[in-house]
């Protein structure tokens, strides 16, 4: 926000959940005031029941960047959804569609057995993808199993061999990092702040509005835990602790993912002045 405000740049969200309307607190979505100050793209564009893919993100993000550049502005793509960013920077492989009967089989197993069995199968067939996905991300687990079962090749292998898209303008990549202990403390503080802002009530409102508990958006970290809290005897403090643990694990997976990405310059997130200076230099250079 500071860099965009100083340079006239616009922000393209690379967050897989900020695309969903109504998921505001738990996704740390930019406020209406922030969006009035700096234009944001790919925020609040889908209903929670709609599916969104890395390929669709890349298509929309490329269009947004082109639109921004067409107005003579710079674009800042900000967010931590690794697969989405890889799709934008490098393109995605054209993975053959799975037979409909395979999707029906896996969906039936999910209903009858729960997610644990599918998760175990994915760990055996595609351990790399299994490590990347959150345990609650049943939709992507099913999709990864579809790919390996239908093609005989893990999703992780398809992604590694994805062709370059060749359509994104030249860009600089800045990655933010923190010592693990500092990061984990900040995660816990952030979760508690979200709860204080009314995160459980946000989830209750989504369910009251008729959003199904198995909607794609509600499989996200935090939302699935609050649904469990609201529909069972899991108490509030246990739920908060579970969200903190899941978020810390996700942060660890994110760091592992982005450390493998090429061309990322890492900056300690506590060095605010350096970060802002370097980002501005790249946008204005």
Topology:
Blueprint: H1 2-7, E1 10-13, H2 32-37, E2 40-41, H3 54-70, E3 75-78, H4 82-90, H5 100-113, H6 115-125, H7 127-132, H8 138-151, H9 155-160, E4 173-177, H10 180-196, H11 199-208, H12 223-231, H13 236-259, E5 264-268, H14 272-284
Parallel strand pairs: 1-2, 1-3, 4-5
Helix pairs in contact: 3-4, 5-6, 5-8, 6-8, 10-13, 11-12, 12-13
Quick structural gist:
By secondary structure, the chain is mostly helical.
What does the model show?
This protein folds into two domains: 2-93 and 169-284, Rossmann fold (3-Layer(aba) Sandwich), CATH 3.40.50; 100-160, Histone, subunit A. Strand 1, helix 2 and strand 2 form a beta-alpha-beta unit. Helix 5 crosses helix 8. The protein has 285 residues and is mostly helical. It has helices at 2-7, 32-37, 54-70, 82-90, 100-113, 115-125, 127-132, 138-151, 155-160, 180-196, 199-208, 223-231, 236-259, 272-284; strands spanning 10-13, 40-41, 75-78, 173-177, 264-268. The mean pLDDT is 90.
Radius of gyration: 19 Å
Strand content: 5-15%
Fourth CATH level, the homologous superfamily of the largest domain: P-loop containing nucleotide triphosphate hydrolases
| Envelope shape | globular
Uncertain residue ranges: none
Tally of strands: 5
What's the average pLDDT? 90
CATH C-level of the largest domain: Alpha Beta
Task: Please name the CATH topology of the largest domain.
Answer: Rossmann fold
Number of separate domains: 2
Count the DSSP helices: 14
Q: Which series of helices and strands comes N to C? A: HEHEHEHHHHHHEHHHHEH
Distance between the ends: 19 Å
Give, in spatial order, the strands making up the sheet with the most strands. Answer: 2-1-3
Task: Tell me which CATH architecture of the largest domain applies here.
Answer: 3-Layer(aba) Sandwich
Largest sheet: number of strands, sense, barrel closure: 3 strands, parallel
- Provide the structure class: mainly alpha
**Helix coverage percent:** 55-70%
């Amino acid at each position: 926000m500071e860099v965009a405000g100083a340079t006239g740049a616009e922000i393209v969200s690379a967050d897989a959940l900020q695309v969903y309307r109504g998921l505001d607190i738990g996704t740390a979505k930019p406020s209406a005031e922030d969006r009035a100050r700096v234009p944001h793209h790919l925020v609040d564009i889908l209903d929670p029941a709609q599916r969104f893919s890395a390929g669709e993100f890349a298509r929309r993000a490329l269009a947004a960047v082109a639109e921004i550049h067409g107005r003579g502005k710079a674009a800042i793509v900000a967010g931590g959804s690794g697969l989405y960013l890889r799709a934008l920077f490098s393109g995605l492989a054209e993975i053959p569609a799975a037979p409909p009967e395979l999707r029906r089989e896996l969906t039936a197993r999910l209903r009858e057995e729960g997610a644990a069995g599918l998760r175990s199968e994915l760990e055996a067939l595609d351990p790399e993808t299994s490590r990347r996905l959150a345990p609650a991300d049943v939709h992507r687990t099913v999709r990864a199993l579809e790919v390996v079962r239908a093609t005989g090749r893990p999703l992780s292998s398809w992604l590694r061999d994805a062709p370059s898209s060749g359509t994104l303008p030249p860009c600089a990549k800045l990655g933010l990092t923190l010592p693990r202990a500092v990061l984990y403390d900040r995660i816990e503080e952030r979760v508690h702040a979200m709860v204080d802002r009314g995160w459980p009530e946000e989830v209750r409102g989504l369910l009251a509005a008729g959003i199904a508990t198995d909607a794609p958006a509600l499989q996200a970290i935090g939302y699935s835990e609050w649904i469990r809290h609201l529909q069972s005897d899991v108490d509030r403090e246990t739920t908060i602790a579970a969200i903190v643990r899941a978020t810390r694990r996700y942060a660890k997976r994110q760091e592992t993912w982005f450390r493998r990405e090429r061309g990322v310059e890492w900056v300690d997130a506590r060095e605010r002045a350096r970060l802002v200076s370097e980002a501005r230099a790249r946008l204005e250079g």
